[in-house]
Amino acid sequence: MRKIVLENLEMEFIAESEIDLFLDGGEQNFTKDLRGFKE
Questions:
Q1: Is residue 17 a contact partner of residue 9, using CB atoms and an 8 Å limit?
Q2: What is the rounded CA–CA span in Å between residue 33 and residue 26?
Q3: Residue 38 has pLDDT above 70, yes or no
Q4: Could you report the per-residue pLDDT of 9-32, keeping only the tens digit for each?
């Protein structure tokens, strides 16, 4: 039971880290990737 809780916390932490990176100007890279993908 405790292990499941830890795994969920780790998943949330990873998700938050990715969001932070995205907001830190990874956002510009992300839109560039999308543009490249559309073309």
A1: no
A2: 10
A3: no
A4: 888 887 777 777 666 665 566 666
